[in-house]
């Protein structure tokens, strides 16, 4: 929920995954003083891709309503993501601001 509007992470993730430079995409809420929460996208790029945060936001703006676009974009390598023993990404860990230090 951002500014009282529901935003579904799956919808934003699907939009990001439709971009040819994106290999994996995860969306979580990040604390925001003005809106309560903001959309944060965590993206793994395909090999040899060169996407910027501005590119990701612009892509989402074309695919989704403007309020659903990410305000924060973070690029990571796939092996950096917190995963269960079965290989599934642990989204609750991604919500923590210090998830990379764990």
What secondary-structure arrangement, pairings included, does this model have?
Layout: H1 9-17, E1 22-32, E2 36-45, H2 53-63, E3 72-75, H3 91-95
Parallel strand pairs: 2-3
Antiparallel strand pairs: 1-2
What's a quick, concise take on this entry?
By secondary structure, the chain is α+β, with helices and mostly antiparallel strands. It contains three helices and three strands, in the order αββαβα.
Description:
The protein is α+β, with helices and mostly antiparallel strands and 102 residues long. 25% of the residues lie in helices and 25% in strands. The chain contains 3 helices and 3 strands, in the order αββαβα. The chain has a 3-stranded mixed beta sheet with strand order 1-2-3. Strand 2, helix 2 and strand 3 form a beta-alpha-beta unit. The chain is globular, with a radius of gyration of 13 Å. It starts with 8 loop residues before the first helix and ends in a 7-residue tail after the last helix.
The major sheet is characterized as:
3 strands, mixed
In round numbers, the mean pLDDT is 91
Distance between the termini: 27 Å
In the predicted model, the low-confidence regions spanning at least 5 consecutive residues are none
What percentage of amino acids are in beta strands? 15-25%
Count of alpha/pi helices: 3
Q: Rg to the nearest angstrom? A: 13 Å
The run of helices and strands is HEEHEH
Q: Helicity range of the residues?
A: 10-25%
Strand order of the largest sheet: 1-2-3
Indicate the overall shape.
globular
The total of beta strands comes to 3
Structural class: alpha+beta
